[in-house]
Design a protein that fits this description.
This protein is mainly alpha-helical and 173 residues long. The protein is 58% helix and 7% strand. The chain is built from 10 helices and 4 strands. The protein has a two-stranded parallel sheet with strand order 1-2. A two-stranded antiparallel sheet has the order 3-4. Helix 3 packs across helix 4 and helix 4 runs antiparallel to helix 5. The N and C termini lie far apart (48 Å).
């Protein structure tokens, strides 16, 4: 396969490879967005590692642009592979959107352990998981309620409802 220089075509071949091969070659190539989306389904761990590395290499507005462009891929990763999703929460929390957060909360003890360890964001705010307003799926509610006694309340401190979209703009939280 070609390295980064002529890697567009080689990157497309990754979708036909095993997850192990994709993990070996993905860091060396520049795959188009569609290939990265496909690989999120077949090699989510490799995609999570790449997303986390690229997220960490950016700051400020550049990181915000990266998040906007890659949150859907990160969601696919989290929905396909819990460990890969937890890696994103640990190393690239900004990529964990509403749907990814719901998928990860099926493993609330692991999520809580990560959130406890993540350093506060600039300004001293604790890391947050954002959810769409409304009830969580029954599987998530059962998993959270199965935590030891004080942990559901502690987990709630890390959670926020995402802003509600209205036609033509946003309406509060």
């Amino acid at each position: 396969m070609h390295e980064r220089h002529g890697g567009q075509e080689a990157a497309r071949l990754l979708t036909a490879c095993s997850a192990r091969t994709a993990a070996t070659w993905l860091p060396r190539l520049e795959p188009p967005a569609g290939v990265l989306s496909s690989l999120a389904r077949t090699a989510p761990a490799a995609v999570a590692a790449r997303l986390a590395d690229e997220y960490a290499a950016r700051t400020g507005q550049e990181q915000q642009r990266y998040v906007r462009g890659h949150r859907i891929v990160a969601t696919t990763v989290a929905e396909r592979d819990a460990e890969a999703g937890l890696l994103l929460l640990r190393r690239a929390p900004g990529l964990v959107g509403e749907r990814a957060a719901v998928a990860l909360l099926r493993h609330p003890a692991a999520v809580l352990k990560i959130l406890r360890a993540v350093p506060p964001e600039p300004g001293g705010r604790a890391p947050l998981l954002r959810f769409a307003p409304g009830p969580l799926p029954p599987s998530v509610r059962r998993a959270v309620l199965a935590l030891p006694r004080q942990e559901p309340a502690e987990l709630v401190r890390f959670c926020r409802a995402a802003p509600v979209r209205k036609r033509g703009g946003w309406q509060g939280q």
